Amino acid sequence: xxxxxxxxxxxxxxxxxxxxxxxxxxxxxxxxxxxxxxxxxxxxxxxxxxxxxxxxxxxxxxxxxxxxxxxxxxxxxxxxxxxxxxxxxxxxxxxxxxxxxxxxxxxxxxxxxxxxxxxxxxxxxxxxxxxxxxxxxxxxxxxxxxxxxxxxxxxxxxxxxxxxxxxxxxxxxxxxxxxxxxxxxxxxxxxxxxxxxxxxxxxxxxxxxxxxxxxxxxxxxxxxxxxxxxxxxxxxxxxxxxxxxxxxxxxxxxxxxxxxxxxxxxxxxxxxxxxxxxxxxxxxxxxxxxxxxxxxxxxxxxxxxxxxxxxxxxxxxxxxxxxxxxxxxxxxxxxxxxxxxxxxxxxxxxxxxxxxxxxxxxxxxxxxxxxxxxxxxxxxxxxxxxxxxxxxxxxxxxxxxxxxxxxxxxxxxxxxxxxxxxxxxxxxxxxxxxxxxxxxxxxxxxxxxxxxxxxxxxxxxxxxxxxxxxxxxxxxxxxxxxxxxxxxxxxxxxxxxxxxxxxxxxxxxxxxxxxxxxxxxxxxxxxxxxxxxxxxxxxxxxxxxxxxxxxxxxxxxxxxxxxxxxxxxxxxxxxxxxxxxxxxxxxxxxxxxxxxxxxxxxxxxxxxxxxxxxxxxxxxxxxxxxxxxxxxxxxxxxxxxxxxxxxxxxxxxxxxxxxxxxxxxxxxxxxxxxxxxxxxxxxxxxxxxxxxxxxxxxxxxxx
Length: 703
Ligand code: HDD
Prior knowledge:
By secondary structure, the chain is an alpha/beta fold.
């Protein structure tokens, strides 16, 4: 390990391949210019006399300033804000019957991956917690070249045809005249677009749902969105949808919390990813496949080529085939996370595209955007983008910043001078596009099978639990309250095609009524898909959950350390929070180290709160406005709360519990000062639930 950072996890083949490019500063290293000249004075420029003008001659000053002036590259036009990590993928059993992709055939094979998560609309410096789709882009460094699965945390998309992408992105981005609002969809132009382009309706339901405000990247599902093809050794093709299923389940923040977080810690998601990996709690997902035989292509009531549609898991189950673990943070944000270039055209033998018109446009866009962003056609030579197998064995030459020194006299194919090298591969080894038969007229027309814009929006709505439906209604209300009334009204009218109850509830909140009826035949009758509801996700672990122990001088020290021990043993990250730093003077007379102050560690940074006993400690908490606010806010965000002994008086004084009454759900109180195993166990059980939504926002609570 070098003196200044550098990871101990030597890692997989890609992590090792990056080593020659890493710059480790050693103990006896001295400052140099980019040309290797040792610099003696890095504090003063070269001047004509100590009070005189700086000399043009100062090449050291000029090199330093020039480099600085050129340090920025264009941010991604979408998905500008991101965070990434290294890791590996491993298949559980050979998928040879389905695909000839080698990385999907050998369960003993470790395939390095680099995964970048992102928001879509905001700039590089925008907040992590905005209501938005999250990008989930995975670069598999396989022995047959890089495979980029560039997906999102939602299984559908806003539009059906790439020709609409610039319009859609323009509408959701800040408005062009004043660049307001940053990273928010709650503005006129997006909703104007949505109400003109009804194919967006299904995705808008997802965007208004809790999926758009994930608790962490490790709590998100990922989706390849499009229907792809898997092709096996015999050339047999099947349709496939890719899924990532998170080991820790799908969990979200609540809206009030996300907005406060945007100010209190706008890096919450990237920081969480970073810290979990540093702590060895490696985020993990399983890869799932929905396979559809070619003969079944037309058997659905939607078109497999329509990216605004999903295949309900109840119709085609998700077959779990492998796992991905992220176990190493990047060494350098710019070199890796910023310069990584995902291209949907990065594909390997055994995987192929379909005629989804959105994907077809993406096949052009990604390569094109990297040319601008990374400054020329050699971006594949940037270390993070290099495959781990032989690459650039071809006759492409030159271009800005070319790294490879191609040796030899020939740079064309077919040549005789260099024995015809490099030779084309043979079909068995190389990439062969699936020979799909196309017999068609060249037209600008969309298939009628893409016409139903609402049924799956209805499917999504009816698959939600009452709590999730409430959140969707509130999200529509919030967003639409910020747009012109004429657009608001159009959206109310549009929602009628999805569901009458949804329409009535949103309309009521906005003080409107529908002014025209739904389209004929809508809303359709659909069978709900329980797999779409987050309420049905895994709730079997507290790993990585953050718990605050809210304490004050005079709190019970033993309860603090017993609860901390029990929670940490279960996998939680625990912090003792108080109104000051340093040592807590606990009731036993001993001292406990405080991990952070209340203002710097607000309740929104935690998943649960514990209040220890100790009379003086409890009174101190009751007399501290910030501490009272802490409990109230934890309460309205539906998080588990536990208190022992006198700690319960703090909850009672904040009117969160009334002595003698039934406790609100998710609130645990013991009269005894002692943290018993049973009590800690019950608290842990509550933390697994994540939230107790039946005590959703109580308007009388001032937090
Ligand atoms: Fe895209 C970036 C995902 C449609 C054009 N897209 C980008 C990223 C993700 C997605 C995760 C960030 C990659 C990274 O971390 O560097 N995009 C999607 C999904 C789509 C989709 C799941 C629909 C199913 N995208 C889409 C269309 C187009 C683009 C239809 C253009 C026709 N996307 C881009 C882009 C970006 C990009 C402009 C911006 C930066 C980049 O590519 O590298 O080319």
